Amino acid sequence: MTTAEPTWRTAVAGAQILFVAFGATVLVPLLTGLNPSLALLGAGIGTLIFQACTKRQVPIYLGSSFAFIAPVIYSVQTWGMPATLGALAAASFFYYVAAALVKWRGVDFIHRLLPPVVIGPVVMVIGLGLAQVAVGMATGKAGDKQIVPHDLALTIAGISLLVTMLTAIRAKGLLKLVPILVGVAVGYGISLFAGIVDFSKVNEAAWIALPDFGRPEFNLAAILFMIPVAIAPIVEHVGGILAIGSVTGKDFTESPGLHRTLLGDGLAVNVAGLFGGPPVTTYGEVTGAVMLTKNYNPVVMTWAACFAILMAFVGKFGALLQTIPMPVMGGIMVLLFGSIAGIGLKTIIEGRVDLANPRNLCIVSVTLVTGIGGLGFEIGSFSLQGISLCGVLAVLLNLLLPNPPQTAAEPGRN
After folding, report:
1. 114 pLDDT band (50/70/90 cuts)?
2. pLDDT in tens, 18-62
């Protein structure tokens, strides 16, 4: 729908888009220790930057990227929050490289460089790498310290998880697009009844306030760890652009061009990191909402971005989000991390990766074990470990390992 319509109706549609993306947008900072108000600010400004780069042709809203949850948690524990923010801003470098490669060689080059046999296991590592963190939060633990009684925490986490799954499976219409929001709301209600919600931060917060902006520092080790993580969101971005193009009946890889959408996403990731928010990416939930409402007007996304920016300056709202108890988040993380791993598995299956092929089996096996096992190495100040190392290894193995000899009876497969 690109015809003119009343401003109020476009604004309402924008608010609806923000509602759909809201749960996932604020969940990422809540799980990683980042500021949810800055996540809203980064998502809003990032979406406006994206629209400027793409001449406001693509009905896309950018929200917090799930792919960075586990890497951010690890990076904060290893190098601290300032170095992590600097590394998140630097992760945009991969987007610029991808945009340049697409402009130079076309989108097929990206698919050859990052085929399913590379992307699938890397995404699985992102999902499974910190599974123990999800279990710890679901049982009320922060490290070795029991914050919420075990049985109570497990009950709240289990109900939050169950409600989220049932909403995703059985709900209809817009409700089906916000299972995380529904699960958190129910878990929060039970937590209120159990008396484990602390409102002291809400009482202290001002109604209108500037968010506490991050202070990024640029640590080479943290940057080298974070940059390869962008491999998965870049592929997700390409899929998101193709998906919204399929919904609207337009080829956005041609106009405005995939190089422009990647550049816009990369600049948004950079700005979000410098502010102190999580990296942003295209949202499948928003594509689903666009398909459901059949409102293809990109101005709707402008309104959604503006509402997100305004909400970032409501101090009490940001403080309220931070009162969500640990077990509620843990229950959602159990599903979320598993879902990310499932997407990696789906990538391998849909890419028809032949694991009977020794070359493919070697790539997948080495990537999974080095990533989940947390293998790392250092050469002076240069270091790679965990997710970043397995991502680099997957790309290099795919480029360097020879294909096995084929017989006439065995046509080539992925």
Report:
1. confident
2. 998 998 899 899 989 999 999 999 999 999 999 999 999 999 999
Residue spans of alpha helices (H) in 254-410? 258-275, 284-293, 299-311, 315-321, 326-350, 358-373, 386-400
Residue 230 to residue 235: CA distance in whole angstroms: 9
Distances (CA, A) of 252 to 13, 185, 244, 301: 22, 36, 8, 16
List Cβ neighbours of 83 (8 Å cut-off, separation of 6 or more).
75, 216, 217, 218, 219, 222
Are residues 219 and 79 in contact, defined by beta-carbon separation less than 8 angstroms?
yes
Longest dimension (CA), the chain: 74
Contacts of 336 (CB under 8 A, 6+ apart): 27, 66, 69, 134, 180
Q: Are 315 and 22 in contact (CB under 8 A)?
A: no
Q: List, in order, residues 6 or more apart from 282 with CB less than 8 Å away.
A: 60, 62, 236, 237, 240, 241, 244, 265
Radius of gyration of the CA atoms of the chain, in A: 21
- Integer CA distances (angstroms), 253 to 54, 166, 216, in order: 11, 36, 33
Under a CB-based contact definition with an 8 Å cutoff, are residues 202 and 320 in contact? yes
Q: In the chain, what is the straight-line distance between the N-terminal and C-terminal CA atoms, in Å? A: 39
| Alpha carbon distance 343, 123 (integer Å) | 7
Q: What is the pTM of this model?
A: 0.84
Token pair recorded at residue 191: 């937590």
Tokens representing 127?
A: 């999902």
Q: What is the DSSP letter of 404?
A: P
pLDDT attached to residue 407? 58
Cis peptide, bond prior to residue 256, ω within 30 of zero: yes
Q: How far apart are CA 375 and CA 87, in angstroms?
A: 20
pLDDT digit string, tens, across residues 218-247 = 998 899 889 888 888 888 898 889 889 988
45, amino acid identity: I
| 138 three-state secondary structure | helix
What number of other Cβ atoms are within 10 A of residue 382's Cβ? 10
Bridge-based pairing of strands 280-282 and 141-142 is unpaired
